[in-house]
């Protein structure tokens, strides 16, 4: 499911997206931030580009020629079934959602950052539950080598790494490791949001990181193992993780 964020404050928009990424990763939600923008017309254009069910998180006061509720009205014309969540400092404007008949899923008041982020988290989890997308229990990485099939719980995986043998990968877990034939790119595409590439030869599980040494370019895992980190992947990793 795609999430579209429309918020006119760049700083707040970046913070909201970061929090959404954390919510998705920690709860293993089948969601992703598809668009983050200050421009309501980018949102309208995105409806044609992504026909699947979406969640729209809209600031009511967009400092534009249309506000968030008017934007929601335009969204409903093109996308009648998706979820709309309003965020605002103006509780007195809630009546407009009824006037425009936009059928908002939630209306979150921005009294504090904590209240805002808790409200977004609660809304996304409720949407996830409503759609029946909670599938944490069946998150396994499966290895087939011709003679056997091995299923590894995603929660047990620390990181994947390439080996000196061509097209051979090693998966490192808390109490075991296993080598198998595959390509790192194919593995990356089969994983969920808790995994991220941290080096051209490594994919790490964000949930099992203990600490990061940016100077030595090392990631320390919860069992004491270390994983390589390269400069080109450091920012993306730090943007995703929050200790």
Automatic annotation (TrEMBL):
What Gene Ontology terms describe what this protein does at the molecular function level?
DNA binding; phosphorelay response regulator activity
PROSITE patterns named in the record:
HTH_LYTTR (PS50930), RESPONSE_REGULATORY (PS50110)
Q: Looking at the record's lineage, which domain of life comes first? A: Bacteria
Q: Which residues carry this modification: 4-aspartylphosphate?
A: 59
UniProt keyword terms in alphabetical order: Activator, Cytoplasm, DNA-binding, Phosphoprotein, Two-component regulatory system
Q: Where is the Response regulatory domain?
A: 2-125
InterPro entries named in the record: CheY-like_superfamily, LytR-like, LytTR_DNA-bd_dom, Sig_transdc_resp-reg_receiver
Q: Where is the HTH LytTR-type domain?
A: 141-243
Q: What role does this protein play? A: May play the central regulatory role in sporulation. It may be an element of the effector pathway responsible for the activation of sporulation genes in response to nutritional stress. Spo0A may act in concert with spo0H (a sigma factor) to control the expression of some genes that are critical to the sporulation process. Required for high-level post-exponential phase expression of a series of secreted proteins.
| Name this polypeptide is given | Stage 0 sporulation protein A homolog
Q: Which organism is it from?
A: Clostridium manihotivorum
